[in-house]
Amino acid sequence: MEDTMSVRLFAWLMIGLGILLPILGWQAASPAGFVGPALILLGILLLVTRRGR
To answer: 3-state class of 39 per DSSP?
Structure first.
């Protein structure tokens, strides 16, 4: 078994981080309102493009 992270796991982690970032970011007044949704979109894009193969 490999010790590397799979693309699917990486994509799900990006989606999870994208969901959590705006929730935590509003308290810190950081640009998380943009970064969170961008991570969600990138994670979904990775999952969709991986299925195409």
So the answer is: helix
